[in-house]
Specification:
2 domains, 7 helices, rod-shaped
């Protein structure tokens, strides 16, 4: 065997040895994956699904990407993705209070604007006579129920749900106004 052949075999052996060593030393970023998962769970428990949904979804998607990279043995990429997922989950958690306060303020303002209008329409509905009276009074009762549900959510800290119910109550309020006007017009 010539010295060139020995060098080539030695170089091949060293390359294969370092490849085996690198593969044996590479391991999944278990700690980073666990931390990212814990941060996502913390965000969910704090209300991120309701008040930071897009940010939470981004963190969940990034964690799924990290897990896919582990499956394909891209441990370095998995670690980067896991760290990014944790940062995204932490960002979602930090947005919850701000977004919750904004929803609370919006719901309170909407309720304050609607209340006098609601009271006026309820009083007008009580005065409706004739064929339309039963339907108008039933619609007024449904509006009252929707308003009470919205108020209950608002008092219970469920601000997004309160906003949805207030939007439904506003639609019922507008429809009731139209029914009252129609009933007044049919009396003439």
């Amino acid at each position: 065997m010539s010295s060139i052949e020995v060098r080539q075999k030695l170089a091949l052996g060293l390359t294969l040895g370092s490849l085996v060593f690198t593969m044996a030393c590479a391991k999944p970023p278990t700690q980073e994956l666990t931390e990212a998962e814990n941060s996502i769970n913390t965000a969910i428990q704090a209300g991120a699904e309701e008040y930071a949904g897009d940010e939470l979804k981004a963190a969940q998607d990034t964690l799924a990407d990290a897990n896919a990279k582990v499956e394909s043995k891209d441990f370095k990429g998995a670690k980067v993705s896991a760290l990014e997922a944790k940062a995204q989950a932490d960002a979602a958690t930090s947005l919850i209070e701000t977004n919750k306060q904004a929803a609370k303020t919006q719901a309170e303002e909407q309720a304050n604007v609607m209340k006098p209008e609601l009271e006026a329409v309820q009083a007008a509905a009580a005065k409706v006579k004739g064929k339309a009276a039963d339907q108008v009074k039933a619609d007024a009762a449904a509006l009252n129920d929707q308003w009470a549900a919205a108020q209950s959510d608002l008092e219970g800290g469920q601000y997004k749900a309160a906003l949805e119910k207030l939007a439904d109550a506003q639609a019922k309020l507008d429809a009731l106004k139209a029914s009252i006007e129609s009933a007044k017009g049919s009396k003439k």
